[in-house]
Amino acid sequence: MELKNTEKLEHSVVALTIEVTKAELEAAKDKAFKKAGKNITVPGFRKGKAPRKMIEKLYGDGVFFEEAFNIVYPEAMDMAVEKAGIKPVGRADVDLGDPSEEGGLTIIAKVPVEPEVELGEYKGIEVEKESVKVLAADVKAELNRMAQRNARTETVDRKAKKNDTLDIDFEGFVDGVAFEGGKAEHHALTLGSGSFIPGFEDQLIGCKAGDEKDVVVTFPADYHAAELAGKEAVFKCKVHKVEETILPELDDEFAKDVSDSCETLDDLKKEITERLKKQRQEVVDQDFEDKVLDAAIATMQADIPEAMYENQIDTLVRDFGYRIQMQGMGLEQYLKMSGTDIGGFRAMFRQQAERQVKSHLLLKKVAEVENIAVSDKEIEEEYAKLAEQYGMEVDKVKAAVATDALAADLRISNALEFLKKHAKVKKAAKKKADEAEVSAE
User: If residue 417 lies in a helix (H) or strand (E), which one and from where to where?
Assistant: First the structure.
């Protein structure tokens, strides 16, 4: 077999013309005959004992062609790819050309390959970066949330007020007829939570344990149940008890209760400030990274084959399937429940896949141009991190993760750090604050 021609097509596809000699094709047909012929019955012969020529005469000359092609094709492609010096990134689109004069086989394989990348502006990119600030109001809001989580309830013998929790029975009627899903017993409803139809909770303010009340509301016009949308309903309610939410005092004892490392409320405020600052710094850093990448991608030139996008979508869909499988649900079941077909589901990942492919190609080219390397120390440190992350011994991680693959990933990471290091940070416009801020420096 021989690679006769290599032609570059658009969208980073290379057409390989491969010729397989008559002798090579015949040898493949012999192998196909030995594999499949034993299952073919020919009158006058025991099953599997008829000669190849007799089978071809009875069933046609092409009876073994498909199996022979499957035998010869992988070897032919490996040879052609190596001689052409290309890096396939997807399955080839294969056609058969006119047979050669000697009676062999001509294969035309259109192979998607990794595109040539031409970098645009990637050093000195000017990108806005927010400064990280934590306001006193932010700390106060977090303290209030912690107090809510640690609140206790107490049954009270008085009229219900906003923020009280009622234990109620209710049943809803439209035009005097009860409707499906409109009934419950001993339902806990916090007044002011907004969990019920607008107006429902307000009408229960002032009720006491033992009271019965008709609550009249109108379903929103865009209510999810079309048969109820825009209609007036009467809910017959009975209040069993009223509970008051009692928040803990925000003092040193509260700080000790909610934190293992704080002795005073001031200590807790400092801990909250540092935690919020860290969380916001991570968000700001990720936003900065995204902006740097997007700016560099915008000036990059690459004729990316569709196969690269489809492969990445495959990966994203597969990862999603693994995650929901861990929750006890298969992908097919999820699609049925969400009313989505696989085509629409894959389309949801298209934009994410395109960006990931472009980012990878960009960073790979930056690493090449800037001669970005990965040290043995970095590789060993990464193996140690993975071992700690998965609770495995380092040797077992090394057996599972090839060094070349790990080094390639680290090289991409180093290229990203190079881009961020050489970007010009532009401070974002200051935002007005109504309250004093706690320094994040």
Answer: helix 403-421
